[in-house]
Design goal:
The complex is a heterodimer.
Chain A lengths: L2 H15 L20 H15 L3 H4 L9 H12 L1
Helix pairs in contact in A: 1-2
Chain B lengths: L10 H8 L5 E3 L5 E3 H5 L1 E4 L10 E5 L3 H11 L5 E4 L9 H7 L4 E4 L13 E11 L11 E6 L7 E6 H5 L9 E4 L6 H13 L2 E3 L7 H10 L4 E4 L1 H8 L11 E4 L6 H10 L4 E8 L3 E6 L6 E2 H5 L5 E5 L2 E5 L6 E2 L14 E10 L2 E7 L4 E3 L2 E3 L1 H9 L4 E11 L3 E10 L6 H18 L8 E4 L17
Classes of the chains: A mainly alpha, B alpha/beta.
Chain lengths: 81, 462
Amino acid sequence: MDTKSEIIAQFKQVAQEQDKRLAPLTDDLALLDSGLDSLCFAIVVARLENSLGVDPFSDDEDARFPVTFGDFIRFYENAAK
Amino acid sequence: MKMPRNNTASLWSAIIASGNLSSHLWAGPEANASWGELAQASILESRPGELRNQSVLIATLHQFSSIAALIELDGIARRIVLYPHDLSKEHIQYVAETADVDFVVTDRPDMASLLPQSCRLVRSGRAIVPANIDRGNPIETEWILLTSGTTGHPKLVLHTYATLAGDIDRADPVVWATFYDMRRYGGLSIFLRALVTGSSLVLRAPQESSPDLVARAALHGVTHFSGTPSHWRSVLMSSAAELMRPQNVRMSGEIADQAILNHVQQQYPQATVTHAFASTEAGVVFEVNDGLMGVPAEIIESSSRVELKVKNRTLRIRSRRAALRYLDKGSPSLKDDDGFVDSGDELELRDGRYYFAGRRDGTINVGGFKVHPEEVEAAINRHPEVAMSLVKAKKSPITGALVIADVVLRLPQSGSSNSVAVQSDILRFCRRELAPHMVPTAINIVPMLAIGEAGKMVRRNA
């Protein structure tokens, strides 16, 4: 599975487990409007570390945090390169 | 500029002494007032003087109501218990009995039926009204803060105005904001800094998100902002971060890692980024301003106001900011014979700096929420197919840590699909029994767990 589909799958999976209503995942969706809270993001990042083998949040201490869903995908795509 | 330390006895006299009565408390729509208004007002629907020398528990939904009641009663009531609104209401009977509570100030109808019969109810209004309160013969009110305990009940920690605010230096007024709730130590210490220095203060309204609070604080010209590293990570992941330009960003409540210190400094190049160590029991212990994680050894070894030492790898603190004792019957002493509080935090010394290496009791800090592994293990072990379990921390760049569990089943599973089904069933079970931050984010089925020589499970964090 490519990075984007894996991220989408994890967002949906965690939202369902945590009983959150997930907003439509468009590129310009602000992450904090996605319906997921900090705990959900922490779980998504941990699961993506397992499935994609990267954790850009920990690997680069100076990278700018993503703000939109599109930023989030690029954050992982760049880390995987 | 350092001015004389403030030695006033109550919140009311501290407001008057600050001389800055027009600075404001902003706690949401229809929940704001100047310190001057708060000093001359009442929010309680009770006869004046009725609460003098009584033990009073404050359990309101809104922080604003708790603050107004606290200012009204400090120096008058014998004891004030601050009940955080996010603390489960099932603890109220234990807390009320342990603190010999005579009166409960609340705007929550659901509280009344849970109280011991000896408690009388005082309704708090929605707004303050001007009142002339008799401030003659003030007494030193005991303040009771609640902190999470290992047994399931919160612990009752005794402070006074002197331990909480006696060490705050007068300073020029600024505009503070905090993500913390002022009914817990972290928020209360920011509230007191603002009050003593005559600064304005922006607090969270009920249900308000962190980005919304940031936007509101920006409107009020926030200069000093305090929260956990997890709060700051969520701010940096929102466009609200751009709305303000704080001079000081303060982190506490969790270990600040180098990434979050760098990120905040990048976002606010003009700001001093501080990470502080404080606890309900020990008070504010130290602050680090050099932009690096960990603590310079000289802070531990030669602190002026607070005495620190590292014994058996854990940090011990002797300080006049420390709490006086626990109220709970049969609870261990809060200080050792020499007056040191054992923080339970393990430190490692590397190259002239101390680094936090977790908690001796294995407590896991998930975004500022403390999780006791034993409590989670007890829930997992109630699942009919589980023989035993070990709960531990996994590092997270978002919440500092997450909870994970190794589980040994009663009967070995025959196929991988079976064990996936059991894993999801245990997780469903945990979600029913536990608060969200306590639920393991991964369950690993393992054949056995290591047992140490004393017959206890070997605990080591991932």
